[in-house]
Structure to design on (73 residues):
């Protein structure tokens, strides 16, 4: 039986909608995929580590994060 290859989702961050220095998305990420940059906004530090849990998208109060290309686990 062939193993199914893990599909890495695309994490889109709308920086115009994002509140500076909120940190909720990076705080809830269990795999530390997101990190807050010098501008106070998140960026994708390690996309391959993403487990596709969707917590960043779910917890963002500004709806600034969207996961695309893979179904949530």
């Amino acid at each position: 039986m062939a193993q199914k290859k893990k599909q890495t989702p695309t994490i889109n961050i709308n920086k115009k909608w994002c509140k500076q220095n909120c940190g909720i998305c990076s705080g809830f990420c269990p795999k530390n995929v997101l990190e807050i940059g010098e501008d106070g906004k998140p960026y994708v530090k390690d996309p391959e580590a993403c487990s596709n849990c969707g917590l960043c998208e779910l917890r963002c109060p500004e709806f600034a994060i969207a996961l695309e290309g893979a179904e949530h686990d």
